[in-house]
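Reply to dn_fold:

You asked what the input looked like. This is it:
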Amino acid sequence: MNIPNIKGFDEAAFQKYFKNTSWLMFGKIFSLAVNLLIIRYLGPVNFGDLSFAEALTAIIAAVGTLGLDSFIIREIIKEPGRKNEILGTALGMRLLVNVLLIPLCIGVYLSFHHFSAKPGTPLTLIVTLLSLASFFKSFNVIDSYFQSQVQSKYVVQVQNACLVVSTIVKVMFVWLQMPLVWFAAALSFDALILALGLVWMYHKRGFNMRLWTFNLNRAKSLLKLSFPLIFSALMVSIYMKIDQVMLKSVGSEEVGIYSAAVKISEAWYFIPLAIVTSVFPALVNARLNDPSRYKKRLSNLYDLLVYISLPVALFFSFFSTDLIHLVYGNRYEGAGPMFSIHIWSGVFVFLGTASSQYLLAEGYTMLSLQRTAAGAVINILLNFWLIPLYGGMGASVATLIACIVSTFYILFIPRTREQGIVMLKSLFLISAFQKIKSH
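and this is what came back:
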């Protein structure tokens, strides 16, 4: 892939990062196609119930990651000889917490169902199955190890193999016209086979999980470092998922229509994560060895993510309804306008993903928590106001505003304001024009 001939870009480095990202591309697109088939089959009410259960469990399960992913990468880079201790400790911590979260998920749902004005069909079994998926995701610590070695391609190979199996299972369920609970079981099965695949790949690469050890002091150290990010992950999950939970007050059908729009709108969110994950080790090294290059790389990263996200948001703003009809037929009327608003959230998600790595590299973990908490609070308050008035349209507006607030919260903090200004220059294409002018 060729990039514009703009001064300031390291094209060789970009080609490497794009290659890493492209490993994910096929699997994500294929997975999206299968999900759209399932959404069309289930219809708004059943898909609304599944989306509500997924959102509820995802919010609680966000705690189960313990905010460790980036810290595992950083610690292994710093202490490669202690990788068995780092990985073993991280896995043990996650397994313990996720075991405790399963009954918590069920208890929260039962309370919600009991006090809801429109409880709908009981979803206890579905919530239980989806909460099990979070337990299996504890083994994603292996993914963090491969990221630390810039070897994400091995993880992607596992993901794509699991995708083939998952696709066969889900398409068979659609063909056999299985009930909703089977699709919840399929999501849990996805997490299980991915965990097994990661373990297999780790051993295939010549490593041995039996050498992993749990160190209590290491656990305390990791928890102390990541503690703000636990709440940050929870806040991120809340402002990304709370709309689908709160929409249940309007009814399962409205949840389904809105979630169908969101499923397409969020389908490309893996792109900034893949790019930023690839460049994070380079950012950390540049910060330590060349501060000027560090700032330049951050600016270029923001520019790149805007170049990707802005044209997509513009295009689908005009053709949202056509796309919804093409994908879902006439089963999800009303999803088009929701999609045309929600798609703009992606621009700020892209920028926010990059700036999160800046905050991590600088050690501003508490600030990361503050900004995501601000986004979550704004989203909840706006949903309380807008959902009763406008349903899914209100939820789309609330999510967009929450993403803007969360991303540019750093403008209000003196020590990070400069970085916020750099992001604004990228968003309004000021830095792009400056590069073109200086070329």
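The chain is about 80% helix and 0% strand.
Hope that clears it up.
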